[in-house]
Amino acid sequence: MEDNSSTPLMDNRTRLVFRLSCWISGLVIVFVFVYGLIASIVTTGGSFAIGGALVNVFWPLPWFAQPVTYLSIASVVFFYSALRLWEDKISKWPQYTLSLIQLLGFVIAFASAYEVLYNFMLWGSLFSYDLLLQNKDPNLVLTPFQPPWYLVFATKIFSATFVISGYTVYYIRRLNKTGVI
Known about the structure:
Elements: H1 12-44, H2 52-55, H3 67-90, H4 95-132, H5 151-175
């Protein structure tokens, strides 16, 4: 096994862990996406609030987790595992490509952080208003805009996006030997 000083090669057991993580999380993403699409079409006839089918259900136990939680966690695990599996190849990409990806990651991190903060602010105000109307379930709070978004769905997805894009910026910075990108 040859040693690359910028990115050490991982042993076979570590590679197996990341492959399994990548496959399992990828299958979870596909399963949740297909479930959400089918559940939305079946339960609402196609006119649905975005994320509703992934927010209004707790699975496998009634108190355990919503499908959108599995989706957001699986997205982060999939991205990290795939990045680790491909890190030797990614480190050989041209500097301008890495710089463009880093810039894009920074912009996406900013936009997703803004969305999360906005969603919490909107969620708090709408939830306070709904409490006055005796609706005590935060999962049922929709944005008043079209198409309606379930704020639980949007917040978890944008949180995962923030983590993925933020780590991308960090990772590409770490790849550069001089530390100047």
